[in-house]
Design a protein that fits this description.
It comes from Rhizobium gallicum bv. gallicum R602sp. This is Vanillate O-demethylase oxygenase-like C-terminal catalytic domain-containing protein. GO terms for molecular function: oxidoreductase activity. InterPro entries: Cholesterol_7-desaturase, VanA_C_cat. This protein is an alpha+beta fold and 276 residues long. The chain has two domains: 54 residues, N-terminal domain of TfIIb; 196 residues, Alpha-Beta Complex (Naphthalene 1,2-dioxygenase Alpha Subunit, Chain A, domain 1). Helix content is 16%, strand content 35%. The chain contains four helices and 16 strands. Strands 7, 8, 9, 10, 11, 12, 13 and 14 form an eight-stranded antiparallel β-sheet that branches. It has a three-stranded antiparallel β-sheet with strand order 1-6-5, with no helix packed on it. Strands 2-3-4 form a three-stranded antiparallel β-sheet, with no helix packed on it. A hairpin with a 2-residue loop joins strand 2 and strand 3.
């Protein structure tokens, strides 16, 4: 687990004064040196691995054995890249990712934005663990939304694809209202501060040249802050990996695959393995 890459800050907000934060319970500090290089140090003075991608600084307490997962759309010309900022949430980092994968809560938590009654049914969709890349994917996900994006002018049936390329990160591909045939990309990069505390860094790659950046950020923050109230009241706070601890429904296929994938990877930071 310590050998994975984790987001630890926005590059645009970093300077020589640095930023103090934490990673998996370990205090760390990141700063620019006089040559403009990024340094990330642990509390015992070790220089940690560094990667700069998607506008974020990534690091690890261990030695990552592979490069950070790719998001090909990050290199696609014409896209608008939006750093949404950060939200601190008192929950397991795994809970934060799983909540991002759940569409059944849209009409009840994001009412009149991402969902609305009576459009509450989750239609059948496809979930798989893609062995060749070791990622969880959910495809053919469709849901009626009153306002699928800030650029949407009215209610539409939105198509989604969900991708989990790392235990504490998820990438969402959804219908792009101003450019049919393309996908809007919204990613959630989660920094595990502790097993029951995390910083969540949303990031977007959009085809939208009209909406002011402030409005795009406000829209996404509104959605996540609605989620935060739910996340911070979930019991248990850690994500249960024992199938008998929480009873799934047909709409929870992505969550089931995500938990199975975590167990297969022996990823237990932020997880609860047995009932207490």
């Amino acid at each position: 687990m310590i050998d994975d890459w984790y987001p630890v800050g926005l590059f645009s907000q970093l300077d020589i004064d640095g930023r103090k934060t934490a990673l998996m319970g370990e205090p760390i500090e990141l700063a620019l040196d006089t040559h403009g290089n990024i340094n990330v140090k642990s509390s015992d003075g070790r220089f940690l691995p560094v990667c700069l991608r998607y506008g974020h600084i990534w690091s690890s307490l261990g030695k990552p054995r592979k490069d950070l997962f790719p998001i090909p759309e990050a290199d696609q010309p014409g896209r608008r890249f939006v750093d949404v900022g950060v939200a601190r949430v008192r929950c397991s980092p795994l809970r934060a990712v799983e909540n991002f994968l759940d569409i059944a809560h849209f009409p009840f938590v994001h009412t009149d934005i991402l969902g609305a009654e009576p459009h509450t049914e989750v239609q059948d969709y496809k979930v798989e663990i893609r062995e060749e890349v070791d990622e969880v994917w959910a495809t053919q996900v469709k849901f009626y939304q009153p306002q699928a994006a800030k650029s949407a002018s009215g209610g539409i049936t939105t198509e989604y694809m969900y991708r989990v390329p790392a235990p504490t990160c998820s990438v969402l591909y959804k219908t792009c209202p101003p450019r049919p045939g393309e996908w809007d990309v919204i990613a959630l990069f989660v920094q595990p501060l502790a097993e029951d505390l995390c910083d969540v860094w949303p990031w977007m790659a959009l085809f939208d040249d009209v909406t002011p950046t402030t409005d795009l950020i406000h829209f996404q923050q509104t959605i996540f802050l609605q989620d935060r109230s739910i996340l911070e009241n979930q019991i248990p706070r850690l994500l249960p990996l024992d199938p008998g601890m929480e009873i799934p429904t047909r709409a929870d296929l992505t969550s089931i695959a995500y938990r199975r994938w975590l167990k297969r990877r022996h990823y237990t930071y932020g997880a609860q393995l047995v009932a207490q």
